[in-house]
Amino acid sequence: MRKTFIIVAGALFLVLSINAIMAEQPDSEGWISLFDGKTLKGWKASERPENWTVVDGVIQGQGARSHLFYMGRDFKNFDFKADVKTRKGTNSGIYFHTKYQDGGWPTQGYECQVNVTQRDPVKTGSLYNVVKLYETPAKDDEWWTQQITVKGKNIQVRINGKIVLDYTEPEGVQGPIRLSEGTFAFQQHDPGSLV
Questions:
Q1: DSSP state letter for 145
Q2: Does residue 174 surpass a pLDDT of 90?
Q3: Are strands 110-115 and 91-98 parallel, antiparallel or unpaired?
């Protein structure tokens, strides 16, 4: 299984280790970098592309709803790891098995919620509209590692190495929210969130 590695910082800022570069070849530990730490090369914003910038080595989203899609290739089974830090009141998400679309909320794939204190009761680690967690070990203004692992029909979400969600998709699931294959997308939820 190829590992997909992105470190996420700030109010869900994205940043990779200092020496990481975007590459399709895995590094010595098996990770594939999806962000070069300098540009949005390989990524495409849906609505409001001006809301996404790279600031001090991190991808930053600010303003009204927008999603930033990885355009390199699709993934099926993977490990995805992100180091995340949110400010109070931030709502965001990490989509997987999704497809690029020009606007609106992504309609395909799962969203792994990133929300510690925003008013939405569905908290970090949840699979939005599928498995709801109302508490999370993640804390605003502190770094945590959020890892999503997909293997066959199983999805695991870890926060700081602790499994907070272990979900096996039932056979015969129809519709757009299901495991198949696809890309990743980051969510800029609302003007009150800095992603």
A1: E
A2: yes
A3: antiparallel
Q: Which helix (H) or strand (E) holds 82?
A: strand 78-84
Cβ-based burial of 104 (10 A; exposed 0-12, middle 13-18, buried ≥19): exposed
pLDDT at 87: 86
85: its two tokens: 């830090």
Q: In what order do the strands lie in the sheet with 13-15?
A: 7-9, 13-15, 58-61, 52-55
pTM for this prediction: 0.87
Contact 33, 9 (CB under 8 A): no
Residue showing tokens 């056979």: 171
Give per-residue pLDDT as tens, 128-158: 999 999 999 999 999 899 999 999 999 999 9
Residues paired with residue 110 on neighbouring β-strands, in sequence order: 96
CA–CA gap between residue 138 and residue 151 (Å, rounded): 24
Distance separating the N- and C-terminal Cα atoms of the chain = 29
133 touches 123 (CB < 8 A) = yes
Distance (Å, whole) CA 20 – CA 67: 23
d(CA 82, CA 138): 13
Per-residue pLDDT, 21: 38
Contact 106, 95 (CB under 8 A): yes
